[in-house]
């Protein structure tokens, strides 16, 4: 059995350089690769492009990279919770490409599956379709969207094994699975790492063939982006 484990996040991110393109899983602050993001901050890589559903918050998640001005371009679907992101975007410091959420997911999935492009009705007739090929199918117009190209995918799973098989929990099963195998190198950090063969094959969400490196993360904060509680009676 092939073992894809690395000892720590430092080893997992070997090869990361300036001006690279990274995919980062998660939705809001749920399921984000906290260890990988912290290491990217520590490495002080710059002029990077980040493909992620959102940009975290000011002091956590991808917001940490934005604070250090390490991000040159953000490709995202939703960015409304980060004031620093807004400031950099409006000032022209940050290049931003807003993409419909389903299209963003499908552009990752297309890359994962080896498809160069696909047609979608989302965005037709809007700025999203400007400069892109359009085509009619059965009386409905579609936009041709190209698959993403990335150097690294950083994902976070609940449990994984030494062969790279992954299981996600709850909302963390969002953009993480479609980003596995969608870049040249996929790095998975997990809360629990077990020997190969210990996971129930029927419970695995992503097979290890899509993962090149895996390590057990630590010190997860798992912050809640918007805490809402019921008022006392």
Automatic annotation (TrEMBL):
Its EC number is 2.8.3.5. Keywords: Transferase. GO terms for molecular function: succinyl-CoA:3-oxo-acid CoA-transferase activity. It is an enzyme of class 2 (transferase). This is 3-oxoacid CoA-transferase, A subunit. It comes from Cellulophaga algicola (strain DSM 14237 / IC166 / ACAM 630). InterPro entries: 3-oxoacid_CoA-transf_A, CoA_trans_fam_I, NagB/RpiA_transferase-like. PANTHER family: ACETATE COA-TRANSFERASE SUBUNIT ALPHA, KETOACID-COENZYME A TRANSFERASE. SMART domains: CoA_trans.
């Amino acid at each position: 059995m092939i073992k894809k484990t690395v000892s720590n996040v430092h080893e997992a991110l070997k090869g990361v350089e300036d001006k690279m393109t990274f995919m980062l899983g998660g939705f809001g602050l749920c399921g984000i690769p906290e260890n990988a993001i912290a290491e990217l901050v520590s490495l002080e890589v710059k002029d990077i492009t980040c493909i992620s559903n959102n940009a975290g918050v000011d002091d956590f998640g991808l917001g940490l990279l934005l604070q250090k001005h390490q991000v040159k371009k953000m490709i995202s679907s939703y960015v409304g919770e980060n004031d620093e992101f807004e400031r950099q975007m409006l000032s022209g410091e940050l290049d931003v490409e807003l993409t419909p959420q389903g299209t963003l997911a499908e552009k990752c999935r297309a890359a994962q599956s080896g498809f160069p492009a696909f047609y979608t009705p989302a965005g037709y007739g809007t700025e999203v379709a400007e400069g892109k090929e359009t085509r009619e199918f059965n009386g409905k117009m579609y936009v041709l969207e190209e698959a993403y190209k990335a150097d690294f995918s950083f994902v976070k799973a609940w449990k994984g094994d030494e062969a790279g098989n992954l299981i996600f929990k709850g909302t963390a099963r969002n953009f993480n699975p479609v980003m596995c195998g969608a870049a040249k190198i996929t790095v998975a950090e997990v809360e629990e790492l077990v020997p190969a063969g210990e996971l129930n094959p029927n419970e695995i969400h992503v097979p290890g063939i899509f993962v090149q490196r895996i390590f057990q993360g630590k010190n997860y904060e798992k912050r809640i982006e918007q805490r809402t509680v019921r008022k006392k009676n």
